[in-house]
Design a protein that fits this description.
This protein has 10 helices and 8 strands. It has 248 residues and is of the alpha/beta class. An 8-stranded parallel β-barrel has the order 1-2-3-4-5-6-7-8, surrounded by 6 helices. It starts with a helix and ends in a 15-residue tail after the last helix.
Amino acid sequence: MTQKEAASYIDHTLLAPQAGIKQIITLCKEAIQYEFASVCVNSSNVGIAKNELEGSNVKVCTVVGFPLGACISKIKALEAKNAIRDGADEIDMVINIGAAKDGRFSVVSSDIASVVHACRMEGERQNKKIVVKTILETCFLDDSQIKDCCLCALKAGADYVKTSTGFAIPKDVDGRQLPNGANEHHVRLMRSVVKDKMGVKASGGIRSARTVIDMLEAGASRIGTSNSVNIIELWDESVPVRIPDYKL
């Protein structure tokens, strides 16, 4: 896989709360230079990113209900709608994680559907396709819950399922912090459910080219990382990448 091909899978991400205008501008310049799929920024920075990326092929991605997913669906839908009006092309929403843990999957599905509907309506108004990704925060879910959340996203009409925010802090019973990002097992599991009907985005803790390759080979079709530039600059085009058949 060439450096350019690898970059085309990456959402170049900066979601730090302290990120200012200069950092967002730098992010966008890097995205244009390396030809990343998108920049992923907080919704308050969408307008800045849209302006900086004007005339390029780089999409503007933003997050909704981030990072907890615990706000009401109407707020998520409104945030998505406003972000699209500011120039967002892709919306990464956090699901209602508490509802998923409870097994209230009708709530999970309707929560996702409310955002999807808002995105479809606003996208239609602007005559453009809005991509909706659903963040499951897999570190808090068991395999059965992950499968059910993927089915909810499918039912609700979303375009992708996504592993993580990268901001979760799961702990064991003794208070020790547990892993919180993407892993191959969860990506394979998600891909096994959605097959070729949806994309799978791996995000959270992806800091090396080797990890990107592992995630792509596990079934990811998009990668979210804030270490994008370093990953692509160190990309070894001689290393084979075996993209699986998603229909399997």
